[in-house]
């Protein structure tokens, strides 16, 4: 994501001043019961077309994406400029009603921000926006020549053995099989055993270049530098050169007369043109994107789809919706209503309903059950007798959490610490052991009070700490029952494995009929937790003779 604020020079003292301003802004919005205003702004940015651009996109520049260019541009601006940096600017403005926002935004976005009660410095926003457009045009120009240079380095011949392969985007080493001999619960292993995948596919490619080549369930799994093959030969490179010169000149001319959108999208149009100029049979049969990047569908995927490739977005998580309130459901998180992936893989009917609401019923989806994502194959330490698998969400420092612009304070240290301590006390009362797997290790970004709680509980005799890299399914299999913090996906994994599974809300604020629970029971408060564990403990005891 483009970090505009990182380009602004400043001393550490200035950055601390900016942080204090964002914290004051958060407190001001909270005191005025307006914490939801940031979400409202970003919801409107997601929904509202950018009027200057409608009907003015060039097929010559954008190719197959031109028909969806308004939506693609909105998606791109949301990930580039609509993230936490915009949140910071809104919070800093909320700290001082006389302060005007100066941030790179197109004119329509500036009007939306003003409509929500924020002052906007028109001339500074326009100045920053012009600099942003020029910078993106320059980056796009450089990218086109890099693509051509890579083609020249590749050579004039191309070997294509006809292998039908799937390509996974944006994976890390933790998302790959740890070995060919020992099964693990990663997304590639899931795909290898999934009965719904294209049977013609015999290989899987990914971008983790340090990973070794292995075979999983008959699939050849190996790294590939890019999802797209490089240009090869004089014909492909010369055709690409003609396109690039035309696109560079046209986007510059358009930007000078106020038609900025081609300059902003030039770098991604360059990759789309690469996909357009390579042979069809060199592309992957299926491209798979995960839901961490749910907002933006790259321009090159429109070209790949036109050439016969399948474009799939899969959910490795089900925690995608805001909590239900006493007065009903709030709007979706920003960006979901702008999704336009051709096909979605979802866990269950609840998630299928979510996708249908996000896309107004226009999307194709397949219910495939839980999708593994990452998890090493190491065994979990033994926990004989009655044991409770516990899955929390690591709370971040307040300074980071508040910048997220959420209107609820649930994933904070007070809630998560109470979640852990209540479960530990109840498990101890019922002579049970606690298998505690933290979601991830984020170091000092985690809240200090949470780290202190973790150190304290970690020394208890009946607490087994499980490395965050270990598969959640391994932990669930080793335990008698599973308790998750609402609404993490581990509760659904446990249900699939036939283990008793609940969500536990120590605050009593979560609505027990919230559709985000996917039908998993929600326990509220220590009394309900104790009663549930008592029933599970009694059911786990051997029958008396």
Descriptive notes:
The protein starts with 11 loop residues before the first helix and ends in a 5-residue tail after the last helix. The chain is of the alpha/beta class. Strand 7, helix 12 (349-358) and strand 8 (364-367) form a beta-alpha-beta unit. It is globular, with a radius of gyration of 25 Å. The protein folds into 3 domains: 1-158, no CATH class; 161-228 and 279-376, Rossmann fold, CATH 3.40.50; 387-540, Glycogen Phosphorylase B (Rossmann fold, 3-Layer(aba) Sandwich). Helix 1 (12-31) crosses helix 5, helix 10 (261-277) runs parallel beside helix 11 (300-306) and helix 14 runs parallel beside helix 18. An 8-stranded mixed sheet has the order 3-4-2-1-5-6-7-8. The chain has a 6-stranded parallel sheet with strand order 11-10-9-12-13-14, with helices on both faces. The chain has helices spanning 12-31, 37-47, 59-62, 69-81, 84-95, 107-115, 122-154, 187-193, 233-256, 261-277, 300-306, 349-358, 398-403, 413-429, 448-458, 472-478, 490-496, 525-540; strands at 165-168, 203-206, 214-216, 219-223, 286-290, 310-314, 343-346, 364-367, 387-391, 433-437, 463-466, 481-484, 501-505, 522-524.
């Amino acid at each position: 994501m483009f970090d505009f604020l990182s380009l602004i020079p400043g001393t550490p003292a200035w950055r601390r001043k900016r942080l204090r301003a964002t914290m004051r802004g958060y407190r001001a919005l909270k005191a005025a019961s307006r914490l939801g205003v940031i979400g409202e702004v970003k919801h409107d940015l997601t929904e509202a077309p950018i009027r200057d651009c409608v009907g003015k996109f060039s097929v010559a520049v954008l190719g197959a994406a031109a028909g969806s260019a308004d939506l693609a541009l909105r998606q791109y601006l949301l990930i580039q400029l609509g993230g936490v940096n915009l949140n910071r600017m809104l919070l800093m403005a909320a700290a001082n009603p006389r302060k005007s926002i100066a941030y790179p935004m197109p004119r329509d976005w500036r009007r939306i921000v003003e409509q929500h009660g924020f002052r906007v410095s028109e001339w500074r926003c326009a100045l920053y926006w012009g600099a942003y457009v020029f910078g993106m045009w320059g980056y796009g120009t450089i990218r086109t020549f890099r693509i051509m240079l890579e083609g020249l380095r590749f050579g004039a011949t191309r070997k294509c053995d006809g292998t039908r392969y799937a390509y996974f985007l944006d994976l890390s080493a933790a998302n790959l099989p740890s070995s060919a001999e020992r099964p693990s619960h990663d997304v590639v292993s899931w795909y290898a055993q999934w009965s719904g995948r294209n049977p013609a596919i015999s290989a899987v490619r990914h971008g983790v270049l340090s990973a070794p080549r292995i075979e999983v369930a008959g699939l050849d799994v190996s790294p590939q530098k890019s999802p797209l093959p490089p240009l090869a030969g004089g014909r492909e490179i010369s055709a690409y050169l003609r396109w690039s010169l035309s696109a560079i000149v046209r986007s510059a001319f358009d930007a000078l007369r106020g038609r900025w959108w081609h300059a902003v999208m030039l770098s991604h149009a360059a990759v789309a043109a690469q996909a357009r100029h390579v042979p069809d049979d060199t592309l992957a049969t299926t491209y798979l994107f995960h839901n961490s990047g749910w907002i933006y569908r790259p321009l090159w995927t429109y070209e790949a789809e036109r050439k016969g490739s399948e474009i799939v977005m899969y959910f490795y998580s089900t925690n995608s919706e805001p909590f239900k309130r006493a007065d009903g459901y709030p709007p979706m998180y920003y960006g979901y209503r702008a999704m336009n992936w051709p096909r979605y893989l979802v866990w269950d009917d609840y998630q299928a309903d979510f996708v249908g609401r996000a896309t107004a019923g226009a999307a194709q989806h397949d219910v495939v059950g839980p999708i593994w994502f990452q998890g090493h194959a190491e065994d979990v330490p033994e926990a004989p007798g009655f044991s409770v698998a516990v899955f929390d969400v690591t709370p971040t420092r307040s300074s980071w959490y508040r910048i997220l612009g959420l209107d609820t304070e649930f994933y904070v240290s007070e809630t998560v610490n109470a979640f852990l301590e209540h479960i530990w006390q109840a498990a101890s009362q019922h002579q049970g052991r606690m298998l505690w797997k933290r979601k991830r290790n984020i170091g000092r970004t985690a809240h200090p009070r949470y780290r202190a709680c973790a150190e304290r509980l970690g020394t208890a005799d009946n607490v087994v700490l499980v490395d965050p890299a270990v598969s959640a399914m391994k932990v669930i299999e080793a335990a008698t029952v599973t308790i998750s913090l609402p609404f993490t996906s581990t509760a659904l994994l446990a249900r699939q494995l036939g283990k008793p599974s609940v969500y536990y809300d120590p605050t009593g604020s979560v609505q027990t009929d919230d559709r985000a629970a996917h039908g998993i029971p929600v326990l509220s408060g220590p009394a309900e937790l104790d009663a549930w564990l008592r029933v599970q403990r009694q059911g786990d005891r051997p029958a008396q003779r």
